[in-house]
Design brief:
The protein is built from 9 helices and 7 strands. By secondary structure, it is α/β, with parallel strands linked by helices. The chain has one domain: Spore Coat Polysaccharide Biosynthesis Protein SpsA, Chain A (Alpha-Beta Complex).
């Protein structure tokens, strides 16, 4: 098998204070057959996010002319990962709340042929410091997703995810405000295998979150209803598309 190209993309809106640390913590050399590149999707920032990202080592920066929302930024990130030839795309928030150093753990189920779409789960790992309103909102929307999919999910709002090439190409995000719930509903209903990985969460100490509780509730709930009412077709999944050679050798010798 050829080298796997992993593109880690960061949707960012005015994250000049935190994005350097995120980029610098992204593992680049954790496997000899994995090439890692970093892509920043600048969602209409008015600060120095672009300049800081380039200085920190981002390989690619795509700037949207105005702030369109996290859902739109993730949609652009997946599109550009595909255009840049990614075998796997990893999304991580630029606010430094998520552990970039755990990206190899997020990728492992895809490399092992166990999943096509993975999510870093704070509730399987550590949620120390998360505000009560955010925790309750997470519980509510995650439980709703679990009911709709008839599949238990622990952290449906995670800002750290990985997508196989097929998942990149088939993922649909139907609104611009956010992506977290609709993309999981979309991919799982199409037959993609999802797996959650425990991660270490830390509360942001710099910058400001764009999430407003009332706007989140009024924007996301209708989008969930829209997504679940849409017809989607099952995708024929290639479960072995991203197996690493080392895994293949291990399987032959077992």
């Amino acid at each position: 098998m050829n080298t796997q190209k992993v593109i880690v993309f960061l949707p960012a809106h005015n994250e000049e204070e935190s994005i350097t640390e995120v980029i610098e913590r992204i593992p680049r050399l954790f496997h000899p057959m994995v090439k890692v590149e970093v892509l920043v999707i600048d969602d209409g920032s008015t600060d120095q996010t672009v300049a800081v990202s380039k200085k920190a080592g981002a390989d690619h920066v795509v700037s949207l002319p105005k702030n369109r929302g996290l859902g739109a930024a993730v949609r652009e990130g997946l599109k550009h990962c595909d255009r840049l030839g990614a075998d796997i795309a990893v999304m991580i928030d630029a606010d430094n709340e998520y552990p970039a150093w755990q990206i190899p753990e997020l990728l492992a189920p895809i490399f092992n042929g166990e999943a096509d779409y993975t999510m870093g789960s704070r509730f399987l790992g550590n949620i120390n410091g998360m505000r009560l309103n955010r925790r309750l909102g997470n519980y509510f929307f995650t439980f709703l997703q679990s009911l709709l999919l008839r599949k238990w999910i622990y952290d449906g709002q995670s800002g750290m995810r990985a997508f196989s090439k097929q998942a990149i190409r088939h993922a649909e995000i139907i609104h611009d405000y956010n992506y977290a719930q609709v993309i999981t509903l979309n991919l799982v209903r199409k037959g993609f295998r999802v797996k959650e990985i425990p991660i270490h969460y830390q509360v942001r100490t710099k910058g400001k979150s764009f999430i407003k509780f009332k706007a989140y509730m009024t924007s996301v709930f209708p989008a969930i209803l829209r997504e679940i009412s849409r017809r989607v077709d099952k995708v024929e999944i290639d479960a072995n598309a991203h197996l690493l050679r080392v895994n293949e050798r291990n399987r032959k010798s077992s």
